[in-house]
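We were asked to recover a plausible sequence for a given structure. The inputs and outputs are reproduced exactly as logged, with field labels preserved.

PROBLEM: sequence recovery
POSITIONS: 384
GIVEN STRUCTURE:
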């Protein structure tokens, strides 16, 4: 494995342990994980690898094959504060600092090599993949006995309070708990999950990357979180709910008049209708109703475009191109503002699908999309 050879080249020794953490795709249920909703994600077969060896001192050395110019970043267990110049290493430092603050014993340092094949800023959760990976590595090496839920929650805490992105729990939890060949219906309020089938006979899931460099995504994401919290605060003055996703579409109609701001009303509408789509999607999947499921994907994208306003030109063109090329359903997956979309494509057109989508997309954007052929996989694990 190249990972071993790279570790040897960088650290002049063989690694002692190897690990893998997947990325994730969310099939439907977008921007509702921080609103207590049900979501429908799966772990995917591209992700982040780690090779490690133990040290006898208090230093941790990090190296990533994806950021070779950064070289080896050396940090001390006594100073894991955020430093902008450390880039991706901050995600790892945040996990370790959080473990130490919670009283877990990290007795010595490590040499760590990271190598990933998840495109950064694609909406496939490269940061969450890294966070869960580091949490799992340290739990395994130091016998911390962290549950997969614990690791996911620590990852979310690092995103929220160390990195400053007010995300929900979905990304970290599916990466920690993914099941091969399945998706998880996940209650982001209670953290309960159950595995469901995630494929339709005669169809293939295709992930499509806009390759559009996203701008100000974190600030826009945090803005949506704040808008939803504002709506929840207003609704709670008249109805005893803990999350926006407790509200049904019927209740939405009777509550609309209490939200005076048109933008906030659109955000509210997306959250409530998207939750209803996830519930319906689980039924369609159980009945092997690909056409009905695809209609929900299309409705989800329309809602994320018009009511939640997180898609943008590149994602809209890519989704429209997928539908013109023969996909029965397509939508943005992930935070939006660029990144990836997912499409449900009949197997008999797979030979022409990607080239036709590329032509449509490139003609309108002058960018070339990337397509990922993935399967749904297990969550984070140690590998041999």
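RECOVERED SEQUENCE:
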């Amino acid at each position: 494995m190249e990972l071993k050879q790279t570790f040897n080249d960088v650290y002049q020794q063989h690694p002692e342990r190897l690990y893998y953490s997947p990325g994730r795709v969310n099939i439907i249920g977008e921007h509702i994980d921080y609103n207590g909703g049900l979501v429908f994600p799966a772990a995917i077969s591209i992700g982040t690898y780690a090779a490690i060896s133990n040290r006898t001192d208090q230093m941790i050395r990090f190296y990533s094959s994806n950021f070779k110019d950064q070289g080896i970043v050396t940090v001390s267990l006594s100073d894991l504060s955020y430093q902008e110049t450390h880039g991706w290493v901050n995600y790892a430092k945040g996990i370790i600092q959080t473990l130490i603050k919670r009283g877990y014993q990290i007795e010595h340092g490590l040499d760590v090599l990271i190598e990933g094949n998840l495109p950064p800023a694609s909406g496939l959760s490269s940061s969450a993949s890294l966070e869960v990976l580091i949490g799992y590595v340290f739990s395994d090496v130091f016998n911390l006995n962290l549950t997969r839920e614990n690791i996911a929650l620590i990852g979310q805490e690092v995103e929220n309070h160390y990195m400053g992105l007010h995300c929900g729990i979905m990304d970290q939890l599916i990466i920690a708990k993914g099941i091969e060949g399945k998706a998880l219906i996940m209650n982001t309020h209670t953290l309960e999950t159950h595995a469901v089938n995630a494929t339709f006979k005669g169809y293939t899931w295709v992930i499509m990357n806009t390759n559009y460099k996203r701008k100000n995504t974190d600030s826009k994401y945090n803005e949506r979180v704040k808008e939803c919290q504002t709506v929840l605060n207003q609704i709670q003055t008249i109805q005893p709910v803990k999350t926006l996703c407790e509200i049904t579409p019927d209740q939405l109609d009777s509550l609309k008049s209490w939200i005076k701001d048109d933008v906030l009303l659109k955000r509210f509408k997306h959250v409530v209708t998207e939750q209803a789509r996830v519930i319906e999607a689980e039924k369609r999947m159980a009945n092997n109703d690909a056409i009905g499921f695809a209609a929900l994907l299309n409705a989800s994208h329309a809602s994320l475009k018009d009511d939640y306003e997180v898609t943008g030109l590149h994602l809209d063109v890519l989704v429209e191109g997928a539908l013109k090329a023969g996909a029965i359903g397509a939508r943005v997956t992930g935070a939006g503002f660029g990144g990836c979309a997912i499409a449900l494509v009949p197997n008999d057109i797979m030979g022409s699908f990607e080239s036709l989508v590329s032509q449509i997309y490139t003609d309108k954007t002058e960018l070339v999309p990337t397509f990922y052929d993935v399967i749904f996989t297990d969550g984070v694990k140690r590998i041999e």
